[in-house]
Write the structure tokens for this entry.
Amino acid sequence: MADPKRTDDLRVMPWWYVLLGVLLAVALGWLVLDWLLGEANRATGVDTRATLRVDAIRTGLTVVAGTGGGLALLLAARRQWLSERAQRHQEFTATRDHSHRERIQAHTEQVATTTQRNQEEQTRIAEYDATERRVTDLFTKAVDLLGSDKAAVRLGGLYALERLAQDNISQRQTVVAVVCAYLRMSDEDESVEAPQPKAANHEDEVRRSAQRLLTRHLRADAPDGFWPEVRLDLADTRLVDFDASGCTLIDADFTGAQFFGITRFTNARTEGRLTLARATLDTVTFDNLTTTGDLILDDCVITDETTFDRASFGGEFSARRAHFATTSFAEAVFDKTASFDHARFDGTTSFRAAVFHSGLSIERGTFANDALFRASRFEDMAFFRWTAFQGDAYFENAVFEGAVNIGRAEFHARASFAGATMRRRPNIDHVRATAHQTHVWPAGTTAEKEDDDWIVLIDRRP
């Protein structure tokens, strides 16, 4: 559709317009001259008529000249008008052409940009496909090496997987999952008993290398690079001298795992849940462990020394039905509920200066050796119902700010609450203690003889 504001096309004036204008000027001058000459002829006197005739002629010529001048002015005005219209037409045409050129330029640039983007996208896709094919090829070859029956070849497969994960962030979790799966697999020739010396069992060396591959990249100061947000699934795995010291563990699962030798979680940090339910361990250290999620030790069996000294438990701590040997929680801090219900402690157990910001429950637990709660602080409830203290039990200088329940507990050796502070009245219902030891009970309680071997606590406070 044409622009309604566009200037009309210019037209050339026909030549006969000018001839007609000249004829009209002559005709008008002739008519005026004829009229004036007629008037002059009526005058009396020769001189007067001559003068009037001369004036008439002069006037007629003036009229012709004036008419011609008027026509000349009209032509000049038309020329000016045409010139202005021509200028406007040129300006309009120039503006239209410029706008058209700009649209063409913009369209050309848009087409070029789109073409470039398409080319870049095609290049990116091609590079991505090439990278994926290369990564897949390397991954497949590394996994094939890992399935070799020769230990040296399997080691080469592990190192190939490590290099692949190091160079390809997106493949790290996959590589870790493959290594974890390798550790979970059991060979027909492999015994579930304690591993043989390294010289006699090459598979143990491969396993140790796989373990080190996993843990050395989970430390923030790892010289080979830190792999964040990597999750370990080592459930039902046999691990030898597993060392996760200083590692960051995210939702790590060791359910049912068998740990041989010395296991270390010293200075480790957990995000999410750390699960060791049904795991069996020899010696294990959790010193300075920091957890932000739950730590699950339900049904766990630890046959040698265990230390949790100065550990900080930000989530719940659950060790229900766990079996401990010599154990230390010295200066540990529990932010949430800690449960040791039905747990058994065969060696000396220390909670010296431990702090429980939430509840502690050791119901139906068994302390086969000494239980040390000296200077511990219980800011919420503390339950020891039905718990058997077969060794000495020391709660000296402990502070109980919440409810305390030691009902049905049995003290088979010495019990001491010397210097202990209890903000609330403790529940000592049917607490029994050996009659062959000297005990120090909480303020306000005394003991009465039940028989030759046992005494029963009595609350004397009103």
